[in-house]
Amino acid sequence: MTKALVVLAFIGLCLGACNAGKDKPAKKKQYKYYCIMHPEIGADKPGICSKCGMQLVERDTIK
After folding, report:
1. Signal sequence: where (predicted)?
2. Dihedrals φ, ψ of 36, to 5°?
3. Do 57 and 33 form a contact (C-beta atoms < 8 A)?
4. How far apart are CA 62 and CA 28, in angstroms?
5. Which of 35, 47, 54, 59 could form a disulfide with 41 if both were Cys (CB 3.0 to 4.6 A apart)?
6. 57, 45 Cβ separation under 8 angstroms
């Protein structure tokens, strides 16, 4: 009985590990304005970076 539980637990762990990481990554929002020092910081209108205080610059193109 104990061996059967160990085997079932092992199979469950293996199946769980095989499916890990297959989720699609979340698509990051492309802002019209961004910080050149911190590209993850952005806004849809001109402003100031919340991390360093630099002026946000306009992107050339939005994909």
Report:
1. 1-19
2. -70, -25
3. yes
4. 12
5. 35
6. no
DSSP 8-43: HHHHHHHHHHHHTT-SPPPPPP--SEE-SS-TT-EE
Of all helices (H) and strands (E), which one includes residue 58?
A: strand 57-58
What CA–CA distance (Å, rounded) separates 48 from 55? 5
Element housing 57 (H / E): strand 57-58
Element of type H or E holding 3: helix 2-19
Which tokens sit at 41? Answer: 């910081």
